[in-house]
Amino acid sequence: MKWLKLTVLTTTLASDIISQLLISEGSAGVMIEDKNDVALNQRPEGQWDIIDEDIARRIGDDVKVSGYYPEDERIKDTVANIKARLASLRPLAPEVDMGKLELKFDDIDEEDWAESWKKSYKPFRLGRHIVICPGWESYSPDEGDKVITIDPGMAFGTGTHETTRMCVALIEEYIKPGMTALDIGTGTGILAMTAALMGAKSVLASDIDPMAARVAAENVKINGLEDRISCACGDLFEKADVTADLISANIIADVIIFIAADAKRHLNANGVFICSGIAREREDETIDALKTAGFESLDVRHEGEWTAIACR
Fold first, then answer.
1. Global pTM exceeds 0.85
2. Helix 253-265 vs helix 283-292: angle between axes, to the nearest 10 degrees?
């Protein structure tokens, strides 16, 4: 089957907005190419870089958000809809720098599409100790590195997003050996595996998306962590009467506000709730909901337009 690769030239700030637009128009997947991700994932000065800077040069200054659509009888209407929605974005969000919003088109074969995004997905560091390594790459760890081998499949969570980086850093800080953990909305399982590698004796990871739950379980197996991590599909708070010392949830502000009271009930005494996916403009609202549920804010962090919170 032939596919149309439709690429929008935009900015880092607007890339999530464009991604959601392309997905809502039926994209079978989304790829974001942003040279700022390369800069954020370099090692400290004086050490070897994990990511080749040539990748950043190839990407260029524009952030490229690409969607993929089958070239069938609907494709002309799909392209027209996307053009119209892009044209309406600036008036809807005048405070956001949308960049060029130019469209580029490429025809690709299905097999080429499945492999094309892998070219720029290289090993990179999250937090102080965690290194994410795609299954098709190799990486020689330094002392103290804890490597997570991952195949994202079609699940959300390659690890490059600001919210994932902040959650990993918070888990590294607050998890202690022997703790138990829950990861809500696990995606590819990165946060669950981080908790296990940093010392959690048992982790229960859940996602309401069956594909995500399956991909997470496969990644757990690839990393040999089946003895410490269990994966489940569904609403964990509804289906399981479990408690833990640490709960992580990298979702969205609305869901975090909704589950705040449940998170408290499922935490052991003095337990920590780590959450992100919170846009900065929703930060105060989310903190208020957490306080209402009985949490005390411990640590609020920012990266880009996003907030992450650790509370007890």
1. no
2. 20
